[in-house]
Hints:
- The chain is mainly β.
- It is 7% helix and 35% strand.
- Strand 1 (36-41) and strand 2 (44-50) form a beta hairpin.
Amino acid sequence: SKWPSPAADEDRDGADNRSEFLAGTNPINPASHLRLGVGNESNGTILRWSTIPGSVYQILASNDLKTWQTLGQPRFAAGESDLLQLSSSSEIHFYRVSRVR
């Protein structure tokens, strides 16, 4: 049997096989993908993302999509999602989540 291409999107969920492998999601299950969102809640602006329990994630932030800086310490995922309250004075407009392990 031949391995699928890293650039292919086997489950047609918008994430290629390589990205899903790095995120720890299942590349043949369209319901298994990293979801990330920013929203306003009663206690301020929240960054929320889906996680795989037992994994460790690092949040990165950028003003220009070229230079990225870590935002806080790596975070252990105990459940299927995590959130981080963002600073209201922040000029950062772009965020990404990286699965460290």
